[in-house]
Structure formats: C-alpha cells, structure tokens
Amino acid sequence: MIHKNEITSKEKNPDLENVLVLQGGGSLGAYECGAFKTLAKHNVKFDIVSGTSIGAINAAIIAASKNDNPSKDLEDFWTRLIEKSIPSFPLQKFRAMLSSVYSSFYGNPSAFTALWLNPWMFVASVNHPYIYDTAPLKETLEEFVDFGKLKNPDRPRLIVTSTDIKKGTRVVFDSKRHEITIENILASIGYPFYGIAWTEINGRYFWDGALLNNTPLIAVMDASPKNHKIVFVTDLFPHEQDDLPKNMMESWHRARDIMFADKTQWAIDVSKRTEKHLDLMQKMHDILEKSSLDEKNKEKFEEIEQEYRRLVFEQGAVIKKMIRIERKEDTHYLFEDVDFSSETITKLIEQGENDAEKILQT
Fold first, then answer.
1. Could you tell me if 60 and 34 are in contact, meaning their C-beta atoms sit under 8 angstroms apart?
2. Are the C-beta atoms of 258 and 240 separated by less than 8 Å?
3. Contact status, residue 173 vs residue 201, Cβ threshold 8 Å
4. Whole-structure pTM value
5. Which of 29, 295, 329, 356 lies at 20 to 30 Å from 201 by C-alpha?
6. Three-class SS of residue 206?
7. Cα–Cα distance between 205 and 185 in angstroms, integer?
8. What average pLDDT does the segment 312-318 reach?
9. Which residues contact 360 (CB under 8 A, 6 or more apart)?
C-alpha cells in the first residue's frame, strides 16, 4: 500500500520524476484505462508516460489527448473499441472465446481489419507476412490524439518502444528527442503472432515492442538518466497462478503470462545497489575534496572529477519507489487479450479502477 501523500510532484522536488509504465496486452489494456482513471481522480501527475503495444496507445492518449481530460478521452477510446455484435453471456470464458473468434475473422472496426474481407486482397492474404491491417486504428487515434500537444511543457513526456524487424533491436521513440506521430505509435503494435501488420518508417520496419520487453522501464531510465524516479507499473499478466494448467491451451496461456509479466524487479535490485554505490562515491569524494592533497594528487583528483560528476549527477538516476498495479484473473483463456466484448471491457476498466484505488488508499 502507498499513501497518496507519499507521491511527490516534480514541482516540490525537481530532481524526482513520476513515471507511468504501461504494458502491452491487447484488450487487457482496458485495465490500464481504469487504473489511470483512478490515478487521475487522485490528481497523481506524471512527468513521463511510457508504453509498448496497447500500452503505447494508452500512453499516447494520456500524453497527447485532444482535450484537457485525458482519462475521459482514454475511456471514450476504449468504449469505441467495444465489439457490440457480441451478445451477453454470463460465462466469462465462453464469452471471451466467442469474442476472440469473432475478432479473428472480422477484426475490429475501430482497430484492425482482416485482409481477406477485402475482395482485392483475398487471394494475396493467403501468402502475406501479416493478415490484419491497422488503418482503422490510425483513423480512431486521430480522433483522440493531437501530437502537437506534446510540445506543451505541462504535458507528460511520451516514451514508446518498438522492435526493428531486421536488426532485432529495441527502438525508442521519445517526445523529448523525436517528433512523434501516429506512425511511431503504430510501429509499437505490430504483433506478428496475431498477424498484425508491421509499420514502415523511412525504410525501417517495426514490430511490437513487447517482443523484446513488455515493461519498457529500462527505456525510461536510459532516456532520463539524471532524475530519480517514482514508478507506477500496470502489470497485466499475473506473476503467480495457484492451479496447474489442465490442457494445452491453458499451458500456452500460462507460458504467455510468464513471458509477458513484469520482469523489472531486477532493475529495482540494481537501482538499490547503484544508490548505495553512488552514496559511497559521494562520501569518498567529499573526504578527498576536503583533504590536503599534494600537487600530483590534486591533478589526479581534478582528472576524475569530471567523470565523477557525470556518473553521480548526470547518470545517477535511481528508482526510489516502485508501485505495481497488478491484474488478477478468475479464468484462464489464451486469447483473452482479443476479447472486446462489452462486459469484458467494462469489467477490466472497473477492475483497474478498484485495484489502483486499493494501492492509493489512506
């Protein structure tokens, strides 16, 4: 549990940044919408919002929403993604199965469309590197996002990650260093295992950033190495599961959860060790600075002074606090992340709201 008054704004402490890290996870991103609604309700401000895949889309709406109410824009976006053709079923697993089958054949009119639904692409879709086009998502995002807003210093810095297909390396799009457009966001969502289209930008081809890391915290630390961080992470994929899988579908589901669950604990451990090392360096530096050194040692001290300041003050950011908002699940279904039924999206938003509220309760 964390008390709201423990969260320090940058205005009160200019050396400390609040960071929101949003994972990828398809329709599970509705949970992130709910979590952000609660954080916004409690007036938690973010200096940096980072995401990959659906997390990149959510992050873009939060950082560059057209209106002055990003949480409302985000919820309106998720309302648009609801697949209204799916009838209501009380059994969550059956509803998720029906919705995912529907989405796999027809796509989602506000997000992606199957190539075979276009008579001109029907034959080509049989032998194509992807089967879903993201043009509808581009049109939808244009209704909710104004990337010109990223130039406003009152808006959060936006950092999204992608994967260079040919090089197999992480690519970071940072609003502080790049002119981010919708194409950069689309470059983060091309998930090949679901057949979603890659994005081409200036002769480079990009897939989903989750292929390399579904929790883009390290990208934030690399991009902003000077200021210490308070980090909020939305963890869409459960770390623990009490019951063993009962069949192959549940085995794949559990393996998927393990692959995409938050793995940043090691970063916290490294950060803690780094903080201790930096503290020790500063103490040793202060002792040497006040000591009576001969000319030869003074010269050596001056030589290492510049490197010391670079390490301690320019690249010495540590994670002061990590707050995880973790989704729990009642049933296990491999394709739950393409369930856009009204009941599921509504439930995920409410679940995110409630879980974030528990984290922030006083």
1. no
2. no
3. no
4. 0.86
5. 29
6. strand
7. 13
8. 63
9. 2, 3, 4, 38, 39, 42, 44
Please give the structure tokens belonging to residue 286.
Answer: 């202060």
**125 contacts: CB under 8 Å, gap ≥ 6:** 114, 115, 116, 131
Question: Structure tokens of 196?
Answer: 């979603």
Output the DSSP codes for 89-143: -S-HHHHHHHHHHHHHHH-BTTTBEEGGGSTTTTTGGGG-S-SEE-HHHHHHHHH
Tell me which of 23 and 241 has the higher pLDDT. 23
Closest CA to 228 of 263, 274, 265: 274
CA-to-CA separations, 16 to 47, 231, 262, 270, in angstroms, rounded:
9, 10, 23, 18
Locate 37 and state its tokens: 């609604």
Residues contacting residue 195 through CB under 8 Å, at least 6 positions apart: 130, 131, 132
The pLDDT value recorded for residue 277 is 61
- What is the pLDDT confidence band of residue 3, given thresholds at 50, 70 and 90? very low
Cβ neighbours of 292 (radius 10 Å)? 6
Q: Which two tokens stand for residue 194?
A: 């679901």
Tokens found for residue 307: 């490197």
Which tens digits make up the pLDDT trace of 172-209?
999 999 999 999 999 999 999 999 999 999 999 999 99
What is the average per-residue pLDDT within 311-328?
A: 78
Which has the closest alpha carbon to 132: 113, 104, 109, 119? 113
What are residue 170's phi and psi, to 5 degrees? -70, 140
Q: What Å distances lie between residue 227 and 186, 222, 274, 307, 309, CA to CA?
A: 29, 11, 14, 18, 14
